[in-house]
Amino acid sequence: MLRQRVITALLLAPLAILLILLLPTSVFACLLGAAFLAAAWEWSRLAGVQSRVARTALLGFVLLLFLALWTMRTTPWLWQALIGVGVAWWLLVCVWLRHFAFAAAPTPENRNLKLLAGALVVFPAWVAALSIHGSEPHGHVWTFLAMLLVWAADTGAYFAGSLFGKGKRKLAPQISPGKTWIGVYGAFTSGALVAAVAGWLLKVHDLRLLGLIVVTIVTVASSIVGDLLESLMKRHANVKDSGALFPGHGGLLDRLDSVFAALPVFALGKLLLGL
User: Fold this and answer.
1) What is the domain partition of the chain in residue ranges?
2) What GO biological process terms are annotated to this protein in UniProt (predicted)?
């Protein structure tokens, strides 16, 4: 399993980096929208929508909203407001994780609630990614940094947890028994180191560099919340993975869960710092 995970990551990571750095924002929006549509398809199954016809109709609705949001890109306050809604949503998710049994029963009301949750996961993240990517200067590089922070945090958490986390205090044992607080500290450390180096390369100095590191730590924390929310959804649905698209990695939602949460937080932090 580990070998499959490594091979898949080595194949996908360079492609993702090239697409982020080389594509114009309009093309990047289309590819990212396609990826998010695939993740939304998996989310709808976790939410309890079994009918493929209903799930296809939902995807059509998501696509229409993507198109509508793209046409509104010249209204900055609207996109900024949606990013703010996304950040507020992930704060609310922290409460949901504390009450992990909430909405677990397979009722129509809980299904609809989870579909609404999916909308709050997907749309702010898409807008946040494009807001960063289209910003000047170095929007493509900042987008890559946002993704790199998530990857670095995931790697730091994995190795810190594997090396030092045995028998240590669990982060959320009812939701994701393998995660420990040692892993969280590893994620914070690796993320902060990446932010410090990237900030220096991007000529971010003094208090703004300190601010970038703080934003990074909050971004990493939100990425962990995103991971836990998807784990919660899978436990409610009684499945191991959201899909089987990537060998050793599960579905696309399994790869994007942390990204969905990190993007709005990083975008808002970048905006507040004037970067």
Assistant:
1) 2-273
2) CDP-diacylglycerol biosynthetic process
